[in-house]
């Protein structure tokens, strides 16, 4: 008789997409539970993470939890403890580890009852350390599972017929068989049982998602194993009770279930999450440290009981999930050489940490500035590594014509010929292209027909002495960029090709790709200049530079608003009114209502404020129509310190005909909002006043009642748009939305009838 000691781990990251949760639930968890229901003699131990419980409830799969509760009650499933959001416990403070474990216990009791008994403990990624083992013992657990490499730092050292106990602590230790666990275990068991001398025990610890989701099991091997007369599946506790003899006391090696002997010899026990040569790992841990320290400091103040502190705690708990570090490892693992690299998953994790820090209003500006710098550096390092190491290959192109076009825009061999044919710049026409370096800022390619690509192409020539040329592309299969190209072309032909305020040179529009191409505006954006000025407040040159940029921004707006509109076709008519601006109220209200269904005040407040703004815009009428940029904020303002008398504005996707105060409101509000965590309030007010006075003086306008009302209206609209953004992004931020709601209301109150 072969006894299969089976511990399954089922978990999904806290920021996993709902459609993926639903898919895994329907393909994997449903299959697993249904198979156990059909085989009442089968038993296993299960780590069900609290994070997954919340996900299943959010996608309407509570019935799976109810059916699982029956299996627990019947003794088929033994639940074990773990950490709520799957952090690497040895790498976080013991207090945080205890907090995560207790959160997970609460989540389990909410589904399986307060009297549930948890004897065993599952270490996320089986990452073991002695200090965490002592904590687990203190919390009342009796056993925990480790990878076999933790016994002496080598594989194939475990006697699975022997009981092991942690020396000096008293916890029973169960070592999993790594080689068996890294296969589809039922297939391996059927092979073993066919041998003349099968082992008595096979101890495995695997992801539960392998059943039905990751592996479809076309031969029904899982069912065959559970119904096999010579294979008996048991829980870990059953296994321990069946072992005879005195326990062997051991001191395991700190390691995880992916550690290698070479890594342990080099004293790198958790290489997938903390490798000394991984710059992204180091930055993530540094950001994590700031977040934990900020939370700890808030406990000692009145802020600890505030709603903001609650949200900060919520985001930190989620931000400690191991996934961001795992996806940053960039290492091939397992029998199929799976690559642990995904930039978007890393970004989702670090956004949680950043949201935690941003949620605490009393965290010092210096601390927030340091965190923002780390965050910005992380974004740069992640995508720099991605495009240097993991470039898209032409062979990955799928049959769909739209996908072929999308991948063509990322294929430098195609682009070299394409640019030679279409770009009229002398440097490109007269010289041979050596290679093209591609950096994408947006790369969304659907399975069938959709794509949205924003990319910078750095064209290098075979004549090395020639300076590389930077070309930008904005392509969207669903939204025509012809209007954007026409807007830039209109500006270029009306004086924005020269002088102190300019735009990039539009090169051409391609109807087939629905893409426009234009030259790069070299320099750093205003927000980056604000960050540098905040980091060096005593540097008079940096402070004066902010005033120069703001002054030029006012002149840029004055220049575009003075452009003639007679006979000008509206470049992007849908962007001209609050009621029709993409994505539109119908879409964003539905998104907020769905995402925050347990907090209806958010979509109700959004709807109320939007209707008020829409009504006021219609009441004021649409006279004095101007060419407006449409999205004028500090990150679209580019200033190059090597050309101190020139300012460029980028991103003309929303350029249209509307009232000029829309641009004023957008810039003034966003300047205040982005600079608020970094600069003194008096300095921000001074910059706002400088901008407005320069603009009015340049155009010869006065602050009439109508002007003040319209400006307040679009200040309110920009505040509300920001609130909508924070409520609809994946890592939503309700405290920031609440703050922006108040700001929106304050602006609306200034409108006089």
Set out the fold topology:
Blueprint: E1 2-10, H1 18-38, E2 44-48, H2 50-58, H3 62-73, E3 77-79, H4 94-112, E4 120-121, H5 130-138, E5 143-147, E6 164-166, E7 172-176, H6 178-181, H7 185-193, E8 201-207, H8 221-226, E9 231-234, H9 236-242, E10 248-250, H10 261-265, H11 279-299, H12 307-319, H13 323-327, E11 332-333, E12 338-339, H14 343-358, H15 365-389, H16 401-408, H17 412-422, H18 426-430, E13 433-445, E14 451-461, E15 469-476, H19 482-492, E16 501-503, E17 506-510, E18 515-519, E19 524-525, H20 526-535, H21 540-561, H22 585-595, H23 601-620, E20 625-628, E21 637-639, E22 647-649, E23 656-659, H24 661-675, H25 681-699, H26 705-728, H27 734-749
Parallel strand pairs: 1-2, 1-8, 1-9, 2-3, 4-5, 5-7, 6-10, 16-22
Antiparallel strand pairs: 6-7, 11-12, 13-14, 14-15, 15-18, 17-18, 19-21, 20-23, 21-22
Helix pairs in contact: 1-3, 2-4, 11-12, 11-14, 11-15, 12-14, 14-15, 20-21, 21-25, 22-23, 23-26, 23-27, 24-25, 24-26, 26-27
Description:
The protein is an alpha/beta fold and 753 residues long. It folds into 3 domains: 256 residues, 7-stranded beta/alpha barrel; 111 residues, no CATH class; 210 residues, Aminoglycoside phosphotransferase (APH), C-terminal lobe (Aminoglycoside 3'-phosphotransferase, Chain: A, domain 2, Alpha-Beta Complex). The N and C termini lie far apart (87 Å). About 1% of the residues have low confidence.
Summarize the structure.
With 753 residues, the chain is an alpha/beta fold.
